[in-house]
Amino acid sequence: MSNKSRNALPGFGLTLGFTLFYLSAVVLIPLGGLVLRTLNISFSDFWKFVWTERAIAAYKLSFGASLLAAAVNVVGGLLLAWVLSRYKFPFRRLMDGLVDLPFALPTAVGGLAIASIYAKNGWIGQFFAPGSRLGHYFGPTGLDLLYSRTGIVIALIFVSFPFVVRTVQPVLETMERDVEEAAATLGAGRLRTFWSVVLPPLIPSIVTGFTLAFARSLGEYGSIVFVSSHIQKKTEIAPMLIVERLDEYNYAGAISIAVFLMVASFACLGAINLVEALTRRFQR
Any residues with CB less than 8 A from the CB of 78 and at least 6 apart, and which? Predict the structure, then answer.
């Protein structure tokens, strides 16, 4: 029997051709053009652009804040996905819809919202301002939630929050509860049932959500503009450094930093995907 007779829907050649064209036009050609532009830059100049003290500080902040935001979203996203999939309560659908709000909002709107709420005179920031009940625990200057590294992490948590929820929630909704009931019948407590029965099947989806949240946070720029003080070597992320190089008409420096950041991002994502693949293999 030929392959065409086995296919329920014909047109593999046409759809494959359109897929390759679309993928090349949207992803491969722009990234390839960026890499080709670096071939006009000598290795010494490339290294001079990407490995300065200022650039290293920006890399550390970008990757560190993205990892921290993704880790926080793993915990919060898992809890929210558990509540949405396991319990019925009023306004559940509304809460479920609000999870996707960061997807729909422009990042600039999200940054403005965070800046207005977490400022020292904002609804939340006022509780950490100097002289407040919580502020005096952090010294005479209080805790600055905005225009600091803390503000950057808050913004990254906001923009990447839905990824963990939307990857874990479908797995929880399709998970059979017979095994959980059997574990409870055998005398396992709730915590033991969660760690031994519920959590292991969720690990691949949790790693996937973590990867997506990390990747989304690493490339964020729009909201960070409103919550970062843009101080060199302190609150400057790598995308900000690229934009500043463009403002200086230093296109070679901007391209070099962008390519270096892209390669480092691919390396981190590859390592995380390897961990995910090993996790799935061990679970079989």
Answer: 164, 168, 202, 206
CA pair distance 229, 236, nearest whole angstrom: 8
Question: Three-state SS string across the chain, please?
Answer: CCHHHHCCCCCHHHHHHHHHHHHHHHHHHHHHHHHHHHCCCCHHHHHHHHCCHHHHHHHHHHHHHHHHHHHHHHHHHHHHHHHHHHCCCCCHHHHHHHCCHHHHCCHHHHHHHHHHHHCCCCCCHHHHCCCCCCHHHHCCCCCCCCCCHHHHHHHHHHHHHHHHHHHHHHHHHHCCCHHHHHHHHCCCCHHHHHHHHHHHHHHHHHHHHHHHHHHHHHCCCCCHHHHCCCCCCCCCCHHHHHHHHHHCCCHHHHHHHHHHHHHHHHHHHHHHHHHHHHHHHHHC
Distance in angstroms (rounded) separating the CA atoms of residues 144 and 135 = 9
Global pTM reads: 0.86
Contact 163, 213 (CB under 8 A): yes
pLDDT digits (tens, 9 = 90+) for 29-85: 988 888 888 888 899 999 999 999 999 999 999 999 999 999 999 999 999 999 998
